[in-house]
Amino acid sequence: MAKSPVPGRVKTRLCPPCTPEEAASIASAALHDTLTAVAACGVERRILALDGEPGPWIPDGFEVVAQVDGSFDVRLTAAWEAAGGPGLQIGMDTPQVTASLLDQCLAALLEGSDPPGAALGAADDGGWWAIGLHRPHPQAFMGVEMSLSTTGLAQANRLRSLGLYVADLPALRDLDTWDDALAITRAESHLATAVAVGAVQHRVGP
Length: 206
Description:
Layout: E1 2-3, H1 20-40, E2 47-51, E3 63-66, H2 72-83, E4 87-90, H3 99-111, E5 118-123, E6 128-133, H4 151-161, E7 166-172, H5 178-187, H6 192-204
Helix pairs in contact: 1-6, 5-6
């Protein structure tokens, strides 16, 4: 799930200190890092559920599915219906993700449940950064409030209420705020995201 990196529409919580153009540059770099990791992992299909217009920044080998209109739970449900399963879904907020971690998460989904169920990766802010499902479920996301400190717990409880076993995936930090951007890129200085964040940091100072 991702948005096209258009100024004023992406990473708005980075403003300030970022300008809308700088926030979009960071979003573009985060997309690059994320899609590079997905391209390198051992999956049969790579699907980008996109809000906005596709561009040359999408690597070869990705199927692009337009996100539907509506709230995020509606868009998530529609994206899963289009993709099917089993699968693992991430967003554009964890540019530090690696191909090996994605393979590890898929293995946890496929091997860790009997009967088949789900997998969930917590985000440090209380949300979630990754979710895996053996098959789409129409009620998996509906009514679960997003972007709250309780979203991850609510999502796990929803999956369990549907009778699904939920495998725990490693936790990651989302890149939502400027503090997040600095913390992630200090630890992962090789990322394209780190270059984009560094350009802003050079302008605004420590």
